[in-house]
Structure formats: structure tokens, C-alpha cells
Design goal:
The structure holds two protein chains of two kinds. By secondary structure, chain A is an alpha+beta fold. Helices cover 16% and strands 19% of the residues of chain A. Chain A has a two-stranded antiparallel ribbon. Chain B has one domain: 3-Layer(aba) Sandwich (Rossmann fold), CATH 3.40.50. Chain B has seven helices and seven strands. Classes of the chains: A alpha+beta, B alpha/beta. The interface between A and B is medium-sized, with 24 and 36 residues.
């Protein structure tokens, strides 16, 4: 997919094509990271989820928090 | 002013932590502060735990970066938490070391009869004493320090009741 968009159009907006938003499942309030790469601007969707513990034992992790500063014995 | 210790920060960050519900229900719609050194401590604890003590560095770093993104995007605001990071100065760190020497309580036992200095606890104690803020904690060293200096604290509970 490739599109041409205008920065600050006649209404003063910079709009992304609807097809691009649909393809990447973006909507109102979605956040994009703007990366400048030499002569390119790359827009990357940010999909942040609340972190999960997975299979980590939090009691063990917190009880030995001081050891995280000093390395393993 | 409200401070939370590193266990509180852990409980805020991990949605399925046993401290999460308590932190959210108790502290939503309030402004809470953590020190910059606590963010570093959280990254170290997360890396150690998720990398299985360094055996799987990729997994450890991936989780730390997930938390970086979470904090950077301020996702906790969705649950009404207004988290602010308090920057410490080199003077704070010097003072924390002097405080630790005076108090002689910032020690924790490690494996094989080793004893380790709880540096971050000393910095938290210093900023707590200066601000006289309400501290949410379940750290026995900080509770001992707060009791000795008549500082306000609340225990972080495992589940909100």
C-alpha cells in the first residue's frame, strides 16, 4: 500500500488514509511512534498492554530484590 | 503527598500481581510519587526474574522494554493513577549513605550467610523523612525506619478488602 498525503491540508489537518487505518486496525485515540530515518518518516502503531507476570514468582522476585543490584552468588 | 515503595510500583505495573487491586483501588484519582532509583530497581528486579537470573537475557530485556513502553505511554492513567517520577540528586545519594551509616538498619540477608546493603531503601527513607509524605510499603526495613521517626505509612495489602 502506498498513499500520498498533504501536510496541513486546506482544513489545517494532516490525515492518514482510511484504508491505512483499517489495515492496521487503528482508530480514534490510537498512538503512533514517529521515527525519522534519514529522509523518511516512519509511523509505527504503539500497542501497549498492561504487563503481566507470566510464570514469574513475585514473592521470590521481590524477596530477593536487593540481590538484583549485586549479581548472583 | 504520597510515595510508594518498589513493591507498590511492582503492584502497579503488573496487572496480575496480588498487590495490583489494592494499589489501583487505594490510589486511583491520587497523585503518587516514585523515585527515579526505584524505576532502575524495578528494571533490575524484572530483568533478574524474567531472564531467570540471566539465563534468558532476551526474555528479560523484552519484559523490561514492555514496562518502558507502558510507563512512557502512561497507560496507568486508564485506571486513574497519576504517577510522577521524582528525580534524585547526587546530594540525595550522599545524604542517603550517611543516613544508612547512622541508622544501621538497611541490611538484608542473602544466600550463604551474606548480607547486602539496601541502597534504594536508604534513598527512599531519606526522601520520606524530608517530605514526611504518606508511604505505601510492606518493606520491614522502611516500616522500622518510619516507626522510629514517626513517619506516616500504610501497609500494601495483597488484595483490596
Amino acid at each position: 500500500m502506498e498513499y500520498v498525503i498533504k501536510i496541513y491540508d486546506n482544513d489545517g489537518r494532516t490525515k492518514l488514509p482510511r484504508a491505512a487505518l483499517r489495515a492496521l486496525k487503528l482508530g480514534k485515540g490510537s498512538k503512533l511512534r514517529v521515527i525519522i530515518e534519514k529522509d523518511k518518516i516512519v509511523l509505527v502503531p504503539i500497542r501497549v498492554k498492561w504487563p503481566k507476570l507470566e510464570n514469574v514468582d513475585e514473592d521470590e522476585a521481590l524477596a530477593s530484590k536487593h540481590l538484583a543490584w549485586y549479581g548472583e552468588i | 503527598m504520597i510515595l510508594i515503595d518498589t513493591t507498590g510500583l511492582w503492584g502497579l505495573v503488573f496487572e496480575n500481581s496480588k498487590f495490583h487491586k489494592f494499589i489501583i483501588k487505594t490510589l486511583s484519582n491520587k497523585t503518587i510519587y516514585v523515585l527515579d532509583v526505584q524505576i532502575e530497581e524495578l528494571f533490575r528486579i524484572v530483568y533478574r526474574a524474567f531472564s531467570h537470573k540471566g539465563e534468558n537475557p532476551t526474555q528479560g530485556l523484552r519484559k523490561v522494554l514492555e514496562i518502558v513502553e507502558f510507563l512512557e505511554m502512561r497507560e496507568f492513567k486508564r485506571k486513574g493513577i497519576n504517577l510522577k517520577i521524582m528525580e534524585t540528586t547526587i546530594k540525595d545519594h550522599f545524604s542517603a549513605m550517611r543516613l544508612a551509616e547512622q541508622e544501621n538498619i538497611f541490611w538484608r540477608k542473602g544466600p550463604k550467610d551474606t548480607v547486602w546493603f539496601e541502597y534504594v531503601d536508604a534513598v527512599i527513607a531519606l526522601k520520606w523523612m524530608e517530605s514526611r509524605a504518606l508511604l505505601y510499603t510492606r518493606d520491614e526495613i522502611l516500616i522500622k525506619f518510619g516507626t522510629a521517626h514517626n513517619l506516616p505509612y500504610e501497609i500494601i495489602k495483597e488484595a483490596f478488602t
